[in-house]
Amino acid sequence: MQLDGLMQSFEPARIPADAEAMRAELKAFLADALAGRPPSDRVRTWSAWDAAFSRKLSSRGWIGLTMPESLGGRGLSPFHRFVVVEELLAAGAPIAAHWIGDRQSAPLLLKFGTKAQQQAFIPRICRSEIFFCIGMSEPNSGSDLASVRSRAEKVDGGWRLNGQKIWTTYAHNADWMIALVRTSGTSEDRQKGLSQVLVDLKAPGVTVRPITLLTGEAEFSEVHFDNVFLPDDRLVGEEGNGWAQVNAELAFERSGPERIYSSLVLLDTWARGLGEAPDPRDTELLGRFTARLAALRGMSAAITTRLAEGKSPVVEAALLKDLGTELEQAIPAALADRIAADPDRPADPELLRTLRFIWHMSPVFSLRGGTREILRGMIARGMGLR
To answer: pTM of the entire structure?
Structure first.
């Protein structure tokens, strides 16, 4: 992919009318479901685990939108999910429980899984009966995903898994993990010999330990595998094809509006408190952030068009994720500076609580889904620059 091809991928896209038509009902539902929740609560949208709320969404058909009706979904387009995701994040809904299964585990199984795997897992994901996490990162590997050392050895009737994953989002609450592991060769073989497997997190030999963050919350975990037996039917896709599969999975993770809206509740709370005659410095800052959000939203919609066409926009998703992360981190930093620059103006305590959470959480934004350095390497290769 050269520069011209990359630019063509971001041609303006229009959300179809039937997808937009879902917005009003969803807004009304969220206004009722989240009534009384302060911004400092709603800003936790990414890290708020609420299985009961996820089941309410499922009961209305808002999870698994793109999955076939035969597998419990609604057979709708990625644009329908785009609208739902946008509204959930804008409102600050608690989405952590169903998020990974809906966003990437179910689509991955639909693309690469066997019919038996699809029938066993996808309907239950759509009903929010089971929840998934992803096993990619490992200790001492940073963002070098190809250096995976967790190994599944072939044994009679299946595989024997040993190793460790880290920074695994909500593994301590999830039921299942799709893990990238080595099934042949060594870590020096890089992308060769990698496969994806389904791991029951309640199976013997699996130990999950939550990691406490600066916020005092435990969104991530480390997961240890000690001679965990995986039956043959736990292999996802083809043995040795794990690198291609995980890149397709990451395109789902990096491309949606969830990569630009993590600080939106904070920005909205600050903007609402500016009053009828705001400081020109505040209106300029708000305008800049609004313009950047609009541009990134347009990019995300364009990538959604590619997904709707059945393509895997890996480089485009990496570019959106890099730019989106930069904005998500810039918002709390800039707002903290603005508040500090005017110490004589009383700051709303609720705004400060909301800002505090995002400030502490924002370093994670450039880690989850791939670090800035890894993403920029992918973009450079896609543009033919390296």
So the answer is: 0.88
